[in-house]
TrEMBL record, chain A:
NCBIfam families per the UniProt record, alphabetical: tRNA (guanosine(46)-N7)-methyltransferase TrmB
Catalytic activity: guanosine(46) in tRNA + S-adenosyl-L-methionine = N(7)-methylguanosine(46) in tRNA + S-adenosyl-L-homocysteine
Organism: Hibiscus sabdariffa (roselle)
Name of this chain's protein: tRNA (guanine-N(7)-)-methyltransferase
Keywords annotated in UniProt: Methyltransferase, Nucleus, RNA-binding, S-adenosyl-L-methionine, Transferase, tRNA processing, tRNA-binding
Free-text function comment from the UniProt entry: Catalyzes the formation of N(7)-methylguanine at position 46 (m7G46) in tRNA.
From TrEMBL, chain B:
Protein name: tRNA (guanine-N(7)-)-methyltransferase non-catalytic subunit
Pathway(s) per entry: tRNA modification; N(7)-methylguanine-tRNA biosynthesis
Coiled coil found in the keyword field: no
Pfam families: WD40 (PF00400)
Segments for region (Disordered): 1-28
Organism: Hibiscus sabdariffa (roselle)
Keywords assigned: Nucleus, Repeat, tRNA processing, WD repeat
PANTHER family, sorted: TRNA (GUANINE-N(7)-)-METHYLTRANSFERASE NON-CATALYTIC SUBUNIT WDR4 (PTHR16288:SF0), WD40 REPEAT PROTEIN 4 (PTHR16288)
SUPFAM superfamilies: WD40 repeat-like
Keyword check for Repeat: yes
Quaternary structure (record): Forms a heterodimer with the catalytic subunit.
Comp. bias intervals (Basic and acidic residues): 1-12
Role this protein plays: Required for the formation of N(7)-methylguanine at position 46 (m7G46) in tRNA. In the complex, it is required to stabilize and induce conformational changes of the catalytic subunit.
Major site of localization recorded for this protein: nucleus
Length: 405, 448
């Protein structure tokens, strides 16, 4: 049989079994809605002339059993295909998706197929299906497919696929990092020598453009320690547009995400979000390097790492000794907000704060009156997750006071 | 499949890397030594030298070696002593080190009046000016305080429990000092920070009020000292660090008053090229009643004298006193009020795995006159062995023997330099080395 005939058979409506030489091991057949066809070994990688016949060669060139489930199914060769259901497009899609798994086919060839046989929606569907595969190459090839779709082509930010094309905000999936980071390790990021060395023009370019400012008028007043993906900062930035605020995060990728997010928001809403920024640092070691004595008005510790083991308790971000440093950077009257969903940690933080001579709890009335308190459990991604799972939160809000000696 | 091949290949080269990395880590452990330390009684009634685990004291008043009395018998310290200090009122002496013991001695009868057990190895000690509290710091950044009862020494050795006073977050504390008026305690650490904390009336409840942070060093801070000034009772803080600078600070505000780039000055004086960047300031000592600061620098055979101009609060190099004829790089300095002498010692504990026994060498510089603040007028002379107060007897006691073979000093000086670098300079690991070090992590999920 020649190619055209085979194609006809495939596209046609009859059920036909196609005998022929089975290729030797290791090649085996995989399951497909078009059934397995053993093909004439004279067929080879298609040239341009063969474009119309591409479907058939695909069957020959298919891979071999990378996928484990493919392997078990390949032994079932010669299975009857129900061609009544399959349309040409369906066939093509099917073949393409399985081929993409196996990565044997060159991408431009795939692109050719798609251009000829698939419409845009099918291509997008394949693209979505391919994203589920773990292999990078599959995703790359799929990405190339996706680019063919005209609307995707125009809007896609070619330079930075990690940015969502419609909102200009970064996609979280590209910034995933481990939830836990060791605060004791000496990470290699730059640390300012002293608070006067902090470059405000880097963080707040619109508000404080000069690098060496001599005026001490505007200083950072809110600090979100362990800001994660930046939920609280974003909410606070619009609530307090006149106040400079900063987030501190230890993880590299997550800091990048927050940076991109703030930049994206600054572009999307001009004039807003100019007062928020993020810095990658170990706040347990380097807080005095960033803030002068009594500089901060509010400090936030939302859902910190619980460090359950006793031996790791010293890594907790709220501890009796670290509270000395936080009391140093907070103004008298400044407020420290903590919240967690772990009961033991909540009790720990509350007791540390209560036994520290420089903190006193806020009264119920003050808590009601403070607009920020409501944000504690709702503004951050972690908080929203807890709410979704119906968990309980434990908060402790204290004010910095002068110690009575 | 490709990934698997890559792993196999990396595995082979890994074993070679591993071997060399393990070796270097082993070498580092072998290179650990403890430098010799000296401390002088405020009125120079006695001088103490600590060398390895050996504590040697010489009584200058009656020119005799002191035998220390301790309940434990045998060696007073089982492991290297890392810090010794006299209290400013002259009644107490404290020694502590790697054996996790802090021993407080009475200077009258040289009996150990208190032994405090520490959880970790001790890296710095200080005695409060009124002699009621002893503070010590460990390698994890916690400063502990223990209170001492009456100082008559008639009470039996008490085993007291120390209480945490303050903490630097997980950073080796290199030096602890009380301010001259006793209001503040200053602690310096390896994370380039100096913290000034208000020393409370009841230290056992903890010191929570931080007065200021003195930030400005770009490497670890190795030593602290105070200059007493008539107009400011809290004194001026002097610090030396691994960035080869000596800085002076106002501790009330934490502001940097002046910096002196000691490293570059050393380069000017020593024409023979000193290696790389290791001009770490190892020890500083203020000469009481002059505004002179003696600085001991790694690889400088002698000391550098800095003068602090009080009205303008600036620092400048006064002169460099070199020790000729000997390879003497001081590891520790000490001085006493009103005697005009600067005591220096060099030496190291026994190097592990070497035959050379621990040794130390003591030298003295004299000529510091209290009345004239101007250093150039002072005629400073390195005293010959016979001129040292206490003479040969002192040398015999403190050094272990009168004459020392010179060659070993170079080895000792090098060892001390390496030890300090290893301990205090933050290591930058390459990616492979980091992966190697993560091998012993036990919290990784095992791959199926």
């Amino acid at each position: 049989m020649n190619c055209l005939q085979t194609l006809a058979v495939v596209m046609g409506k009859e059920k036909v079994r196609i005998p022929g030489k089975t290729p030797a091991k290791p090649s085996t057949f995989f399951k497909s809605s078009t059934g397995n066809a053993t093909i004439d070994s004279s067929l080879f990688c298609p040239t341009k002339a063969d474009e119309g016949n591409m479907l058939v060669p695909i069957l020959r060139w298919r891979p071999i059993s990378f996928a484990k489930n493919a392997q078990s199914e390949t032994t079932k060769s010669n299975h009857q295909v129900d061609r009544t259901k399959a349309s040409g497009q369906q066939i093509a899609m099917d073949l393409l998706s399985t081929n993409l798994v196996h990565q044997e086919l060159p991408a431009d060839w795939l692109i050719n197929i798609s251009r000829n046989f698939l419409n845009n929606t099918s291509m997008s569907a394949i693209y979505q299906a391919c994203l589920k595969f773990k292999s990078k190459k599959v995703k790359e090839d799929a990405g190339k497919l996706n680019k063919l779709v005209p609307e995707n082509n125009m809007l896609q930010n070619k330079a930075n696929p990690t940015i969502n094309k419609s909102t200009g905000l970064p996609r979280k999936r590209f910034y995933r990092a481990r939830a836990h980071s060791n605060p004791l390790s000496d990470s290699h990021f730059p640390v300012p020598i002293s608070p006067s060395h902090v470059d405000y023009s880097l963080h707040y370019p619109q508000l404080l453009p000069l690098a060496n400012r001599t005026d001490t008028f505007n200083k950072i007043e809110f600090a979100d320690i362990g800001c994660g993906f930046g939920g609280l900062l974003i909410s606070l930035a619009t609530l307090f547009p006149e106040t400079l605020m900063i987030g501190m995060e230890l993880r590299d990728k997550v800091t990048e995400y927050v940076k991109e997010r703030i930049l994206g928001l600054r572009v999307a809403s001009p004039g807003q979000y100019q007062n928020a920024s993020v810095v990658r640092t170990n706040s347990m070691k380097y807080i005095p390097n960033y803030f002068e004595k009594g500089q901060l008005l509010k400090m936030f510790f939302l859902f910190p790492d619980p460090h359950f083991k006793e031996k790791n308790h010293r890594r907790r971000v709220i501890s009796p000794h670290l509270l000395d440093e936080y009391a140093y950077v907070l103004q008298v009257g400044g407020i420290i907000y903590t919240i967690t969903d772990v009961e033991e940690l909540g009790a720990w933080m509350k007791s540390c704060l209560q036994s520290h001579p420089m903190f006193e709890p806020l009264s119920e009335m003050e808590l009601e009156a403070d607009p920020v308190v409501k944000l504690l459990s709702s503004a951050t991604e972690e908080g929203q997750k807890v709410a979704r799972n119906g968990g309980q939160t434990f908060q402790a809000v204290f004010r910095r006071i002068t110690p009575s000696s | 499949m490709d990934a698997r091949i890559d792993e196999c290949e990396r595995g082979d080269s890994n074993t070679q890397e591993d071997a060399s990395l393990e070796e270097s880590e082993q070498n580092n452990k072998d290179m650990e030594v403890a430098p010799a330390l000296v401390s002088v009684h405020p009125t120079q009634s006695s001088v103490a030298v600590a060398l390895g685990s050996d504590l040697r004291v010489f009584n200058l008043l009656d020119n005799s070696a002191v035998s220390l009395m301790d309940e434990s018998g045998g060696a007073y310290h089982n492991d290297w002593i890392r810090c010794i200090k006299y209290g400013t009122n002259g009644k107490l002496f404290v020694s502590a080190g790697d054996d996790k013991l802090v021993k407080v001695w009475s200077t009258d009868c040289w009996r150990c009046i208190s032994t405090v057990v520490s959880e970790k190895r001790v890296s710095a000690v200080a005695i409060s000016n009124d002699g009621l509290h002893v503070c010590f710091a460990d390698k994890f950044g916690v400063v502990w305080v223990v209170d001492l009862p009456g100082l008559d020494g008639t009470e039996a050795s008490l085993n007291k429990k120390a209480v945490p006073l303050l903490a630097h977050y997980c950073s080796i504390i290199t030096s602890l000092e009380f301010s001259p008026d006793g209001r503040f305690i200053v602690s310096a650490d390896r994370d380039f920070k100096i913290r000034v904390t208000v020393f409370p009336k009841k230290p056992l409840d903890g010191a929570h009020e931080i007065q200021s942070f003195c930030l400005g060093h770009t490497e670890f801070v190795s030593c602290l000292a105070f200059i007493c000034t008539p107009d400011s009772p809290q004194g001026i803080l002097v610090s030396g660090g691994g960035d080869s600078t000596v800085r002076i600070w106002d501790i009330i505000s934490g502001s940097l008053l002046d910096t002196c780039e000691v490293g570059t000055k050393v380069g000017q004086v020593e024409s023979d090229a000193t290696e790389g960047n290791c001009s770490t300031v190892t020890n500083i000592c203020t000469i009481p009643e002059c505004t002179l600061i003696a600085v001991a620098i790694q690889s400088l055979r002698g000391i550098m004298l800095l003068t602090c101009d009080l009205p303008s609060r600036t620092l400048s190099v006064a002169k460099v006193v070199s020790i000729v004829g000997e390879n003497f790089v001081p590891t520790s300095l000490g001085s006493s009020i009103s005697r005009g002498l600067l005591w220096m010692v060099t030496g190291a504990s026994k190097l592990r795995g070497s035959d050379v026994s621990s040794l130390s060498r003591v030298k003295v510089i004299s000529g510091f006159k209290k009345s004239s603040p101007n250093a150039t007028e002072q005629e400073l002379a390195v005293l010959a062995d016979s001129e040292i107060p206490g003479g040969a007897k002192l040398l015999e006691k403190l050094q272990g023997s009168i004459s020392i073979d010179e060659k070993v000093f170079l080895a000792a000086a090098d060892a001390v330099k390496t030890a300090m670098c290893n301990l205090l300079i933050k290591k930058q690991y390459s990616d492979e080395k980091r992966e190697f070090r993560k091998r012993t992590r036990n919290d990784k999920k095992s791959k199926q």
